Amino acid sequence: MVTLTRVILPSLLLLLLLLLLAPPLYHHLTLHFNTPSNSDYKTKLAGKRVLLCGIGYEVGEQLAYQLASHGAKLAIFYRADGRQKTLLNLQKTFELTDDVIQIIQPLMVARTDTKAMEIKETAVKLGSPQTEIYPFNFGNTTTAHVVVDTAVSLLGGLDYVILNHADIPRGLFLHSLKLQNQDFLHRTFSVNVYSYIEIALRALPHLEKTSGHMFVSSSVLGEVPEPGLSVFSSTKHALTGFFTSLQLELQERRSSVGLTVGRLGVMKSTELRALLDVPEFLMGDILECAVGIMNSIVKRQRSFVYPVVHTHFAGLLWAI
Question: Which of the listed residues 14, 72, 141, 233 has the most CB atoms within 10 Å of its CB?
Answer without folding.
Answer: 72
